[in-house]
Amino acid sequence: MSQLDARRLSLLSGAAYAGMFVFGIVMALLGAILPSLADRLQFATADIGTLFLFMNGAMLASSLVLGLAMDRFGMKPLLALGPLVVAGALVIVIRAAAFPALLVAGVLLGIGGGALNGATNTLVADLHDDPRRKSAALNLLGVFFGFGALFLPFAMGALLAWLSVSPLLATAAGLCTGVGVFAMALRFPAPKQGHALPIAKMPQFLRSPLVLVFALLLFFESGVEFTLGGFISTYLMRDIGVASVAVASWILAGYWASLMVSRAVLSRLALGSDPYRTLFLCAAGACVGAVLAAISPAPGFSAFAVVLCGWSLAGIYPTVLGIAGSRFQSHSGTVFGILFAVALAGGMILPWLAGQIGGTAGLRWVFAMVAASFAAILVVSRAAARIDREQRMAAHPN
């Protein structure tokens, strides 16, 4: 690789990391700010699920189209415009005077976040050929997701005694704008399908058993990740007895920090480990953490449980994408679009279901639902390993 190539690779990786930082802000935003907005905007526990329904519904509606668009037009438009859409959503949250304004912001967060999630993961996966290197690089990308997700909870925990939420959101909007401008200035790889949208290939991938089983894995993973990020603070304050928004924000920050540190560790370990073994261990650990959260008797115990969940679930999403990106290299944008669409269906349905469960039976039962979802991931990961092994043996019988 020439020095110019190395410099370009570094810049493109930097754009992906910055875009994933913004997506981390999107993922953590609602869970971090909703306790602070509850009194002013007057919404109930079930409304939290509705808000996630709107946000993830917008991501779902755009994901398939965005995946096709990446293969046809490249990743620059999404990495440049996605952060600007997120910045606009943050401005709406700052100015919101009633709950319906949050629904509008949620839709914009979904569109901008979906663009960034798809483009950053696809770009990083395309920069590496070996599946283990893909998984390692995607875990490293996830570290920057952790930085973004940690940004607002950490800032609120540290600064809420001196600043209101609005200046913190304005700062985040400024960072998002800078990320979009940075991406606009770069030269990205040429589109992989430069003459037409690869729509004709879509039914083929939708019939692929491996794509379908990966999609089911990400349905549950995305659903519980959105659920945990959105409900931890509310759970701590309403069911566990944490009296301070700042303390709840610190524990939420610990959840995102554990996810970030875990992905940093996995970015090294993934180079020498079986990805399917990683999936199994991550799902098992996260299931244990969710069970502990559901039966938690005190704030300290709850903090440990949610940190264990964050640490364990961290490897699931990038590991699945690493395998999928390797198996479907020439149409990674389209396949990732399918996976993201199904994942976001989980991100839309499970938090909504959690809101209904929490509103009627209490938030402890939300964590029971999360534990069941991780158990499903554990089972499906074994099925994925078997399907992948059989397909590779059929393709290379000798």
User: What string gives the helices and strands in order?
Assistant: HHHHHHHHHHHHHH
Shape descriptor reads globular
Distance between the termini: 34 Å
Fraction in helix: over 70%
Mean pLDDT: 83
Content of β-strand: under 5%
Count the DSSP helices.
Answer: 14
Largest sheet: none
Q: Gyration radius, to the nearest Å?
A: 20 Å
> Stretches where pLDDT falls below 50 for ≥5 residues?
none
β-strand number:
0
What class do helices, strands and sheet pairing give?
Answer: mainly alpha
Structure description:
This protein has 398 residues and is mainly alpha-helical. It contains 14 helices and no strands. It starts with a helix and ends with a helix. The mean pLDDT is 83.
Produce a short descriptive summary.
Helix 1 (3-41) packs antiparallel against helix 6 and helix 8 (209-240) packs antiparallel against helix 12 (316-327). The chain has 14 helices and no strands. By secondary structure, the chain is an all-alpha fold.
